[in-house]
Write a structure and sequence with these properties.
The protein is α/β, with parallel strands linked by helices. Helices cover about 40% and strands about 15% of the residues. Helix 7 runs parallel beside helix 8.
Length: about 240
């Protein structure tokens, strides 16, 4: 677990009125479902020392998709809400970070491929966790204390957890796409009107955590999305220079 994460986690519990007990119960249930595997070695081989694209479902994803299609050999980590539009446009993520809120039909279809699923257990998704049995390659994560087959790489929303994952497995560079952290919610997130306020609050927390990560990570951090402190803002035209 990242040094200093425990404080951030307790801040999340306080800010969102979550119960640590429920997070732990969910993690225990996920741990009981997962099979022992060497998927972490697979992630290490995909990520270590590489340039990684981390993709969210913010408003800028629409403009990013045509660009992402050009970079077939770059490892892509996607938040689950971004998976459907990516797949529909011929972009298949290598790693999907999910708490199982995404399109189940798409997740099940991709789950039969070599794509790695990083499934997050928290107090609100314990009923969905049986779905992981449909995934060929899967590891589990928690916001609380890691144990057994359950990891804690850091992060809160699917998008920022993808960056923390890249940090843990020692990527060289991370470039963000569709991660805008603004006051607009991307159409691909399919957020209900009643959930908009909470969604924006979660995005703000995700941004805070990425700013924190930028203060100590060895990653070179870039974004093609909204400017974020600690990340160098670049244009799509600069990608070839950054990647090489």
């Amino acid at each position: 677990m990242i040094l200093g994460w425990k404080k951030r986690y307790h801040d999340i519990l306080k800010d969102f009125k979550y119960a640590e007990k429920k997070d732990k119960e969910s993690a225990i249930h996920l741990e009981s479902i997962l099979k022992r595997s060497d998927i972490d070695k697979k992630i290490f081989n995909l990520v270590n020392g590489k340039t990684i694209f981390v993709i969210g479902s913010g408003p800028s994803l629409s403009s990013a998709i045509p660009i992402l299609r050009k970079y077939k050999k770059i490892v892509k980590i996607a938040a689950d809400s971004a998976v459907k539009p990516l797949v529909e446009n011929g972009v298949i993520p290598d790693i999907i970070v999910t708490d199982l809120d995404g399109d189940e039909n798409v997740l099940e279809r991709i789950g039969k491929t070599n794509c790695v699923f990083v499934v997050h257990a928290h107090g609100d998704n314990i009923e969905k966790l049986e779905f992981v049995k449909k995934f060929k390659n899967c590891i589990g994560t928690t916001q609380s204390t890691p144990f057994g087959k359950i990891n804690n790489f850091g992060g809160f929303t699917d998008g920022d957890r993808g960056v923390f994952l890249a940090n843990h497995f020692q990527a060289k560079k991370v470039i963000l796409f569709g991660m805008d952290f603004g006051k607009r919610i991307g159409k691909f997130s399919e957020t209900k009107k009643s959930e908009r306020k909470t969604k924006l609050k979660k995005l703000k927390k995700g941004e805070e955590l990425l700013k924190w990560l930028s203060t100590f990570t060895k990653l070179e951090l870039f974004t093609t999305s909204k400017s974020i402190k600690g990340f160098k803002k670049i244009s799509y035209k600069e990608l070839d220079i950054i990647i090489t």
